[in-house]
Amino acid sequence: MKIFQMTIVVFLKLLPFGLLQDTSPQMNILQEAVRDDGNVKKEFDFIVIGSGPSGAVLANRLTEVPEWTVLLIEAGDETNIVADPPFVAGALQFTDYNWGYKAEQEDGFCRGCFEKRMLYPHGKALGGTSIINYMIQVRGNPLDYDRWAAMGNPGWSYKEVLPYFIKSEDAHIEKADAGYHGKGGYLSVSDVPARTESSHAYVRAAQEAGYPYVDYNGKSQIGVSYVQGTLRNGRRDSAETAFLRPVRGRKNLTILTKSRVVQILIRPETKEAYGIKYVRNKRYHEAIASKEVIVCAGGIPVLRDLPVGQKMYDHATFPALMFQLNESIVIDEEKSLTDLNTYIQFLSGRGIFTSLGGVESLTYIKTNASDDPDPSYPDIELIYVGGSLNTDRGLIFRRIFNVPQETYDKIWKPFEDKYLYQIFPMLVHPRSYGYIRLKSKDPFHWPKFYANFYSDPENHDVKTFIAAIREVRRINSSPSLQRYGATMVQTLIPGCEDHVFDSDEYWECAIRTLTGTFYHQVSTCKMGPEEDPEAVVDAKLRVHGVKNLRVVDTSVIPLPPTAHTAGPSYMIGEKASDLIKQQWAPTPFNLIPKTE
């Protein structure tokens, strides 16, 4: 036990530091390029703020035009290869690669969380949140995009965006639907090499319960599947490794890290963006854009009376739904981290370190609480983990969901030497929404996030969660899991002891007491026509009423998608690149053709 804890602690201490710096030529090119502020150009054709998936794609695609110069500016620093093992995704939230945001206290949820607050991780590194996320690649449901288009956003139907998903991909999926995946793209999407026997049992059990095996990024989404991840040879394939590292030698691309944008420069008389002010090495600098400033960091200053941040959707989860098994077929982290073979296997892209933080399977379901008329539109995603919050004996996983030590000790600690798997139900189409407020006019003050979970007047979100829990129990009763004696852990959630276990009242208390998020915030800069009072950008992602300013990231998504938002973020960057090329390219440029 002590050896295991020491291994975890030493590993975490290594994460923020460059003790294992990548010494590849591409990395050295970047380090040389940003070493001296005096050598940085001041004028560019395009300035891209933020290096997450959308920003990285833009920097790559816009510099395909040799006549254009592009500045990509990122507040965070370089990562190092310690961030490569997918299994450590959760631990990365507790490093300098995370901004460290927290949601504000509210009465309706997270009542049993530490400080009654959820953590709101956002990546602060070259590659943005793709550096610290769980690498789960989900595009979403075709209806998501068809409904965006129907809201007055031409060009965003599923048939029109699918080619951009395919364009990005270099897919290595064993059970992939023909015609839905790409080869040779920058972003590697693959099956996860590490799979526990418990995940196989779960996938079989879901099929026994009536869910077909599907390629959820293919023809249909409702069903069960092993997870698809943005991995290359078992390692994290982030926005930086996929889209930036291969093109860092381009002379028309300048990348600045550790540079925080504090102002977008706009001419008040013409409402035209023309540059940025940023801080680097404790000094203010300005950069000028002759064509456009493109924000890929989730927000813009309020120049017009635009509803920036007034509506924010997010995907909630419940982190305390676990089942005990009678055999050791789940992740044994203690054994793995203290076994030299684990590290040797990872060198060849195999073993437990290739696991997406323990996530092994996804199931998309439509519960009996859904009132959507389309039978192909899920309302819940079930995330299967071949372990539980006690897999690391409470060192990291409980902290991801801000579970207090005393709550962990009551619910999870008694099962530390047992075999548990866990299901995280994710509400994909919440009716509740929150908002963001600025703490002050100081750009160095963090914003205030109000998630406002479970606040819809009809309590539909809570009812959907309860229906999902009932469906999870039904899947768990299937023969393939009962072979291993799968039984729900029935320890009462602290604060819910007055309710009868498994009653609707108990589950409502439970999900309002322990609440989590997968940081899939969208809609804060909603895409829509100018007559839409909630819209901030138009269908070409141009800010209403401001010239030469676009927002290109998941904040433009008008409704919460049936997806983890990294996948749509890459697509948005690809499509925006074509929209920009169509407007500004020196030679005629056609948008990518539609699929049939």
From TrEMBL:
It comes from the Eukaryota. Gene3D superfamilies: 3.30.410.40, FAD/NAD(P)-binding domain, Glucose Oxidase, domain 3. Its cofactor is FAD. Pfam families: GMC_oxred_C, GMC_oxred_N. The active site is at 520 (proton donor), 564 (proton acceptor). GO terms for molecular function: flavin adenine dinucleotide binding; oxidoreductase activity, acting on CH-OH group of donors. FAD binds at residues 129, 261. Residues 430-573 form the Glucose-methanol-choline oxidoreductase C-terminal domain. Residues 1-20 form the signal peptide. Transmembrane segments: none annotated. Residues 45-300 form the Glucose-methanol-choline oxidoreductase N-terminal domain. Keywords: FAD, Flavoprotein, Signal. Belongs to the GMC oxidoreductase family. This is Uncharacterized protein. It comes from Aromia moschata. The lineage of its organism: Eukaryota, Metazoa, Ecdysozoa, Arthropoda, Hexapoda.
